[in-house]
């Protein structure tokens, strides 16, 4: 009976299984993401994360231990020079499994397994989350009074604009009133001038008639 035996043999003997996981770990370190089945990815995660933790301590001993597992000097160099610096601040959880559906044919569950710090899109989404803030009732009540003051200050520009518009309208009405007064004065002047000219013309005609009558009487005499 297999009570409490959680490791998955993956249908292989120990030597075959260790060789397969070593090759998969090397591919993951070199390419940062590989495509495989979900059971293999889960076993690979348990296999490769202790190796990445070991790479944080760059010593000859840790390099020899990692090389004995991977059997690939290029993967060891990549792991200790670059990946260990990327994951230096991360306390575990270096890999991520993303399920992609089921494979045609045998309907096996497929997924990607990748190194978390090399997926820039996922890192950007995590940085945009806002920090949660808690507010007490006392602080809210204390902030209500300043908020009212700020509201009145915010309304000051609107009041000033309204007053400026009213002042402009009053000025425009005054200008119109002055123009109408000027037009009335001009009309009154013109009306006062026209009778004077008519009276002067009448006086000239009477003088001419009197002179003509005087000349006629002189001729008769």
Helix content: 55-70%
Q: What is the mean predicted local confidence, pLDDT?
A: 81
State the total count of DSSP E strands.
3
Say which CATH homologous superfamily of the largest domain is assigned.
Ribosomal protein L17
CATH topology call of the largest domain? 50s Ribosomal Protein L17, Chain: A
Task: State the name of the first-level CATH class of the largest domain.
Answer: Alpha Beta
> Which regions contain 5 or more consecutive residues with pLDDT less than 50?
none
Please, how many helices? 6
Note the overall shape. rod-shaped
Number of domains: 2
Structural class: mainly alpha
Distance between the termini: 175 Å
**Major β-sheet profile:** 3 strands, antiparallel
The percent range for strand residues is 5-15%
Q: Strands of the biggest beta sheet: in what spatial order?
A: 1-3-2
User: What CATH architecture of the largest domain do you see?
Assistant: Alpha-Beta Complex
Q: Nearest-angstrom radius of gyration?
A: 52 Å
Task: Describe what this molecule looks like in 3D.
This protein has a three-stranded antiparallel sheet with strand order 1-3-2. A hairpin with a 6-residue loop joins β2 (95-102) and β3 (109-115). By secondary structure, the chain is mainly alpha-helical. Helix content is 69%, strand content 9%.
């Amino acid at each position: 009976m297999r009570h409490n035996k959680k490791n998955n043999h993956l249908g292989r003997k120990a030597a075959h299984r260790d060789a397969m996981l070593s090759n998969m770990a090397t591919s993951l370190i070199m390419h940062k993401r590989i495509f495989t089945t979900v059971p293999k990815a889960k076993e690979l995660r348990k296999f490769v994360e202790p190796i990445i933790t070991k790479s944080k301590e760059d010593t000859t001993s840790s390099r020899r231990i990692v090389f004995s597992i991977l059997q690939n000097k290029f993967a060891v160099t990549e792991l200790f020079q670059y990946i260990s610096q990327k994951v230096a601040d991360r306390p575990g959880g270096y890999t991520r499994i993303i399920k992609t559906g089921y494979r045609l044919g045998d309907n096996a569950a497929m997924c990607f397994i990748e190194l978390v710090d090399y997926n820039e899109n996922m890192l950007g989404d995590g940085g945009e989350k806002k920090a949660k803030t808690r507010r007490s009732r006392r602080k809210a009540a204390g902030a209500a009074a300043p908020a009212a003051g700020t509201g009145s200050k915010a309304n000051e520009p609107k009041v000033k604009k309204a007053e400026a518009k009213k002042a402009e309208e009053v000025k425009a009405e005054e200008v119109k009133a002055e123009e109408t007064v000027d037009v009335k004065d001009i009309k009154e002047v013109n009306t006062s001038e026209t009778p004077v000219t008519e009276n002067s013309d009448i006086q000239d005609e009477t003088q001419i008639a009197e002179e003509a009558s005087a000349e006629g009487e002189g001729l008769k005499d």
